Amino acid sequence: MKLNWLPSTCTLGNLGLGSLSLYFTIQERYSLALLMIMLAAICDVLDGLLARILQCTSEFGKQLDSLADIISFGLAPTFLILLYRLEDADWIGPAAAVFFLICGALRLARFNLSAPSKGFVGMPITAAGVILSMISLLDERMKPGLVIGLMALLSVMMISRIPFPSLKKSFNRK
After folding, report:
1. Cβ pair 111, 172 in contact under 8 A
2. Known catalysed reaction(s) (predicted)?
């Protein structure tokens, strides 16, 4: 039985959950918005893992994954942080959010053009989006300036040349 459709289904789950996060953020249901981002991260890990296990990686899957990731780990976290933590941050909050999105898109584009390797160059957008969402939402003591600083740091880490480990090769079939 062919299960080649399974990885793309997980990717679409990632996209759907990221979209639901935006919906819950707009409704000011911030805990649910965070939960959707966390579930999207699980789907993001599963899609690549299943594609490698089922030996059905494809250029289509790679591009679809990046489109889902920019919504679930770029747009959804920035909206969540802007509306929940940075609503009174004047122009600097939206500027930091736009910078985070731009860096996330650059990171994804660079990943899509790079040759397969044993690790990542720059922090993956999934990690950056999850860290931003969790820390900013779960620590009520964080001041807006610190949230903006965290967003800037994560943005720079995404476009940096810093190597980050990947478990991908561990799951490839021989």
Report:
1. no
2. a CDP-1,2-diacyl-sn-glycerol + L-serine = a 1,2-diacyl-sn-glycero-3-phospho-L-serine + CMP + H(+)
